[in-house]
UniProtKB/TrEMBL annotation, chain A:
It holds the Pfam family DUF4439. InterPro entries: DUF4439, Ferritin-like, Ferritin-like_SF. It comes from Pilimelia terevasa. Residues 10-144 form the DUF4439 domain. Gene3D superfamilies: 1.20.1260.10. This is DUF4439 domain-containing protein.
TrEMBL record, chain B:
Residues 1-85 are annotated as: Disordered. Residues 7-43, 60-85 have a biased composition (Low complexity). This is Uncharacterized protein. It comes from Pilimelia terevasa. Residues 44-59 have a biased composition (Pro residues).
Length: 146, 227
């Protein structure tokens, strides 16, 4: 039996949060100390979102996906610049997942999705700023390109 | 669209590829991790604020060209056998009901504009932000480069809201002569607008919730760009 659409979307988002937490572990060690501290705060934010998602999916009788032991990173993280680039990539991807959950949820689940989208947008903007990208903001956070 | 493409070439768009779809590599690839203290984050979603109240329906004249004059109904022959008051009241009441029902296909509110769209207050607030940023950029050229992306975002949001509202979306009010707000005032306006967009997102239907969530998230990022 297929889960209803809101649970499906939230489960996909949870899988993305698992991957984001993994990615921050991999990229944080490549950053200078000050930015590594920022990465730990971002990772903590993703853990909070993950926990909130787990609670939500449990209460909805969903079947939340478990974290995998490891995830393939989209590119090698050889230095600090690549680490920041990966952080931007991770935040843009989770923003997209949360955004996709907005339109199919309502009530507390939509509030969760809005918080997730907003936080990922904020972290993406911060990592763009640390990367020297200007502007650091995007017009429609989470919206797929094109 | 002025969206940034920060991802490396060859990576899939964010929403298109859930992370779990990625093949897992060996667990040995995992780097040892420091414990992550749950630092407090700035609240991303602020307590929902009430939207500015919708404008009341203009009290237009209830004109109806096809409505027959009430006078002829009263000029009927007096009835000698019945008490006078009741038939007259009945006739007048019938005329009144006919007017309400729309005699001759003339609707009661035919001459009135449609009620405001639910997104109209948000559009008006967005137009006001566009104008406010524009004035500040003109008055403080040193800030223009920093504020321009935010100004452009609000302009794009206003266009998207206009498209969502469709026909009947208002045009921005001219603001000639208005004073340029300082950065603190811009920040307050941006905060209020962020709360308004978040509240609108939470109460909107599915299609609009996505756009309103994008706008709310964008405004949260604007607050970090402001000097």
């Amino acid at each position: 039996m297929t889960a209803p659409l809101p649970q499906q979307r939230l489960a996909e988002t949870l899988a993305g949060e698992h991957a984001a937490i993994y990615a921050y572990g991999a990229l944080g060690v490549r950053l200078p100390a000050a930015q590594a501290a920022v990465a730990r705060r971002a990772e903590a934010a993703h853990r909070d979102r993950r926990d909130a998602l787990l609670l939500r999916l449990d209460s909805d009788g969903g079947n939340p996906p478990a974290a995998r032991p490891a995830y393939a990173l989209p590119f090698a993280v050889a230095d600090a610049a690549a680490a920041r680039r990966l952080a931007v990539h991770v935040e843009e991807r989770t923003a997209g997942l949360w955004r996709a959950a907005l339109g199919v949820t309502e009530g507390p689940a939509r509030q969760l999705a809005l918080t997730g989208l907003t936080e990922s947008a904020l972290w993406a903007a911060r990592w763009r700023r640390y990367s020297g990208q200007a502007p650091s903001t995007v017009v429609f956070p989470g919206r797929p390109a094109g | 669209m002025s969206r940034h493409h920060a991802a490396a070439p060859g990576t899939a768009p964010a929403a298109a590829r859930p992370a779990s779809a990625l093949p897992a590599r060996g667990a040995a690839a995992a780097a040892p991790r420091a414990s992550s203290p749950h630092a407090t984050l700035p609240p991303a979603t602020l307590p929902p604020a009430t939207l500015p109240p919708a404008e009341p329906l203009p009290a237009g004249p209830l004109r109806c060209a096809a409505l027959p004059p009430a006078a002829p109904a009263r000029t009927g022959a007096p009835r000698a056998t019945a008490p006078r008051a009741t038939p007259r009241r009945a006739v007048l009441g019938a005329v009144g009901l006919a007017a309400l029902a729309g005699v001759g296909g003339c609707g009661l509110f035919r001459d009135d504009p449609a009620p405001p769209h639910p997104l109209a207050p948000l559009l008006a607030e967005t137009d006001a932000l566009v104008a406010a940023y524009g004035r500040t950029m003109a008055a403080q050229p040193a800030l223009a480069a920093r504020l321009e992306p935010v100004h452009a975002a609000h302009t794009a949001h206003a266009a998207a809201l206009r498209a969502a509202i469709g026909a009947g979306a208002g045009t921005p009010a001219p603001d000639a002569g208005a004073a340029a707000p300082g950065v603190a005032a811009l920040r307050r306006a941006e905060q209020a607008a962020q709360r308004a967009a978040a509240a609108a997102c939470l109460s909107a239907d599915g299609v609009r919730a996505t756009l309103l969530g994008e706008i709310a998230a964008a405004r949260a990022t604007h607050l970090e760009v402001l000097p």
